[in-house]
Amino acid sequence: MAFIELKDVMVIYKPGTPYEAVALENINLSINKGEFLGIIGPTGSGKSTLVQLFNGLIMPHRGKVLVDGIDLSDLKGYQLREIRRRIGLVFQYPENQLFGETVAEDIAFGPRNLGFKEEDVHRRVKEAMEFVGLDYESFKDRSPFTLSGGEMRRTAIAGILAMGPEVLVLDEPSAGMDPRGRREILSRIAGIHKELKIAVVLVSHNMDDIARFAQRVIVLNEGKIVLEGTPQEIFSLGEKIRDLGLDVPPITELVLRLKKRGINIRSDICTVEEAREEILRLLGRR
Fold first, then answer.
1. Is the separation of the CB atoms in 134 and 158 below 8 Å?
2. How far apart are CA 108 and CA 94, in angstroms?
């Protein structure tokens, strides 16, 4: 059974006013435990609104959001707090979520606020820092605001991980980072997915990241899901993706150009590794 389900969901901003706008419409989506889901779409397509539905930060004006079979509209107070522990959301520019005097205090805030015993809080902080690649002794007493951009983002992710989520939702976690920082943070996220076996939902404008890490991709446009499939299925629709104002991964662009020149190469290639295997096959080495 799906862990998160959205059924015929609609979200309206400023309803009943002259500024009323439909942000999401007719959204039907299931997210399974342990999967890695990518969400893409042009600016203003509703991606950030969508992920805020997952843990009840916003509620739909129509339709239902179910988590583990529970309708979020039926929950109040501490019950919603428990949902937000189970589904951790890291916003774009997560360094804006930091506020503690030290890195350890910042990461400890969530589990401490949930009522865990202090020894459990300490253990969770150390484990979360290890998962994101921050040495506990080196970073625990540092101010979050003295860290590099990548370290700040890892601290914000650690703060979510320390609460023991079953789903980690990341809204553009590598926005504004240089290529090295982006690779590092995405590699950490992939490691978390693999080691902790939790579901990851990644919102990104970087098609390389989506192609490399996501098992399934949904494409939003004007508040609706317009495409859904594996990265290979989605990015093989090169022209359709471009018509939505999106790019395809550079390796897919190369493959599609080779295809137009008459080379009998698969059109559903979207990573360097897949391209290497296909080229070796074409050369008769596989």
1. yes
2. 16
| 101-152 pLDDT per residue, tens | 999 999 999 999 888 999 999 999 999 999 999 999 999 999 999 998 889 9
pLDDT band with cut points at 50, 70 and 90 for residue 3: very high
Answer for the pair 24, 31: CB distance below 8 angstroms, yes or no: no
Please report the sign of the dihedral spanned by the C-alpha atoms of residue 57, residue 156, residue 168, residue 119.
Answer: negative
Going by DSSP bridges, is the β-strand pair 216-221/224-229 parallel, antiparallel, or unpaired?
A: antiparallel
Cβ neighbors of 176 (< 8 A, separation 6 or more) are 93, 149
> Could you read off the pLDDT of 221-235 as tens digits, one per residue?
999 999 999 999 999
DSSP state of 74: G
Q: What Cα–Cα distance (Å) separates residue 86 from each residue in 2, 18, 114, 130, 166? A: 14, 37, 12, 20, 5
Q: Would you say 158 and 107 are in contact if contact means Cβ atoms under 8 Å apart?
A: yes
pTM for the model? 0.90
